[in-house]
Amino acid sequence: MQRVSNSSQIRVALVEDDVNFQNALIDAIGAAPDMTLQSVAGTRALGLQALDQIQADVLLVDLGLPDGSGIDVIRAAHTKWPGCNIMVSTTFGDELHVMQSLEAGASGYLLKDSAPERMVFEIRSLYSGGSPISPLIARQILMRFRQDDKSAAAPLEPASGKPALSAREQEVLEYITKGFTSDEIAVIMSVSRHTVLTYVRRIYAKLEVNSKAEAIYEARNQGLLND
Amino acid sequence: MRDYLGLLVLGATLWHPQVQASEPLHFTFAEIMSIEGRGYSPPPYTIDAGDLHGEWQPVALPHALLPQRIDAALHDDPSSPLTVVTWYRLQVPKLAPAAEPRYLYIPRWKTDGQIAVYGDSRLLYQSHASMEWNGWNLPLWIALDETAGTITPRVILLRVERPRKSGGGISSVWLGEENSLVWGYRVRDVLQVQLPFMSSAAFLALGLFALFVWLRQRDQSLYLLFFCLSLTSYLRSMHFYMGAERLPISDDWFSWLTVNSLFWMIATVHFFLNYLHRRPPVWLNRTVIGVTVVISIATLPLFSALPNVYILSALAYVILLAMGTAVATVGLRKSLEVRSRDGIFLASWGLLGMLFGLYDWMLQNNYVNIEGSYLGSYSNIIAFLIFTYIMFRRYVGAIEDVKQVNASLAMRLQAREAELTQSHERLREIEHRQTLSQERQRLMQDMHDGLGSSLVSALRVVEHGRMDEADVGQVLKGCIDDLKLAIDSMEPVDADLLLLLATLRFRLGPRLESTGITLRWEVKNVPALDWLDPKNALHILRILQEVFTNIIKHTHATEIRVATGVEGDYVAVTISDNGQGFDVESALKSGGKGLSNQMRRAESIGAEIKWDSNIAGTCFTLLLPIKRKKPDM
Q1: Is the pTM of this model over 0.80?
Q2: Whole-angstrom distance, CA of residue A127 vs CA of residue A109
Q3: How far is A93 from chain B (nearest CA, A)?
Q4: A146 and chain B: CB distance < 8 Å anywhere?
Q5: If you placed Cys at A114, which of A51, A118, B84, B227 could pair as Cys (CB 3.0 to 4.6 Å)?
Q6: For residue A218, what pLDDT band results from cuts at 50, 70 and 90?
Q7: Which ipTM value was assigned to this complex?
């Protein structure tokens, strides 16, 4: 899993219209010996264009772009750059923005007011397979999967290939909603901190698959798709 | 005139002895002879016209035998009444042998005794039932014997025996082959016998239906009256079709039933009319009931001393005609007053029915041609159709009413529903507006106390150049934390206090980390707090945020411990540090803005705050009620 090595740098691509944040990030990456900034795009259109280049390891996307939503860039990157770790940059890390990014294929988020060291740390963590999470988002995901459980219990509901949370994953989420940090959870569950963060990554992946399945199910219901 | 014509016809037939076999013979002329006696005597099996010694007198048919005036000197014993036997002799012309059998057809006959028919001296037919109810309304259809060597009789003898004081008679007589005569017989039989029988039975069925309706709806007395009408009419109609065989009850009771049923019927009609015009005349009510009861009782066959009702019927019918006429006239007048269409219709028919009754009475007493039919059964049929029509209209009207009531109910329900929906929407709108305004107030208050005042004071300090960049950064970081908590507070936490604390830790964690303070997180599950809405959640976040800020700023602590637990009716959130502590009393007195804000917020959510401070550290406790006593709206 550890892909960080001296020979390969973490290639970071940035889609962000806020010049101050651009600069802060350029500085932070420049200061990090294991990272290089591959591209910087200031609009949605440029961001989509950048996806035609060689695949980056980490893609940072702002949602509020001047010519559209960063969600489109996330979705396109998820298809075109399948191995890329996508993270959304957000001021507040609020549930609405983060959840829709996760559902579009992002696997992490970066708070814009983070200190430079923190930013580099988050990028590294994401690259190595971990994902950040907040208590409110953990709760939101728990609720989402609980609803699915209910509908799956109904005999008429087709299986529809929706993944469910494993017991361990659910346990992690529940600890997070109670305020425990990943370090504390690692101790409680007798695993490494990194394992806890990869649990979160897996949970995000399931959430993305889930929302896609839901979208297809909805489309079928509304007759937009044929079987 | 008619009799004269009849004689001519008979004369013509006699003139031509060879008559076409297919043409029936119509006898409108006969010879009669009467023999007086005492008591009823059985008719002889054979009789030869030559044996009857007496004076034959020619008469025209139909012929009525009028009651005889009885000499007062003769004692008329009911067990053996004075009777008279009247013989009718019909001469039949010689008829050619026919391929088909021949029949004798007598459309009507009447006697209060017995009738016997002879063909060439042999008994062909005799009435078998009792003397009074002997089937006098049934037309006679007698097959002439068709045995070896028989020929069509040349002489027909009719023996009519009756009490001297009552009348009798026969209609004209027909003789012929079946296909030439039977239609006349059948039409008369249907009209005179079958129709009254079938219609009265049908009406009784309808009456039963009305009775069942009444049993379910006792206030609808019209249905009961209708049933009574159908029953009395049924009893009355037995007159017209019974009597060919002996009756299952005694003659006296049968007479009592059938004669009195007419009184009962008229009484019912009276009350029916009352119902229609709704102005019951009290005097007539009393009269009708009085007369009906008196007649019903007086004619009971129990009183053998009185002459039986059959004998009295002529008198009874006169009383009945008077009562019926009164009922119909009064009913008509009242119905005209109130313009009851049904009432007018029914009363008019009642008056007409009295004319029919008069005719029947005259027919019964031989004052009119006895070949006619009783009209009472037909007036009954039509009256009953009127009743049925009235009931039908009421019944259908009631159904229509119910339909209309239902429709109007449905409309009112719809209107009410629309009203409800509207008022519900209005309420929701008001609620929505209230929520918005509360939310606005809450955020305003929060901005004013927290973010706003922090920014303003930072601005003042920066303006006076007394703040370095790092301090400005700290102030701004604090402001951003404020904002983040305000945003988090808007997410519903579903009464989960731990989630709220988790959020607080998530937001303040990085800042604590940067100060090097260790955070020990020792929360335990606590009961759900149902009152934890965004507004109250923000109050709790701010109170605790202030605690952390104070610890970081003033206490030089190296460790903070956060724990939760239950204390009685409260959930306790404890935040303890190992800092230098402070004098709670003086801090509260000096009126520090932070502490007073905490107190105010705690008060507004019904919570309590406790400080326990010494040199080893400070323990802050926030006690949150599990159930809010009075919700703060």
Answers
A1: no
A2: 12
A3: 9
A4: no
A5: A118
A6: confident
A7: 0.85
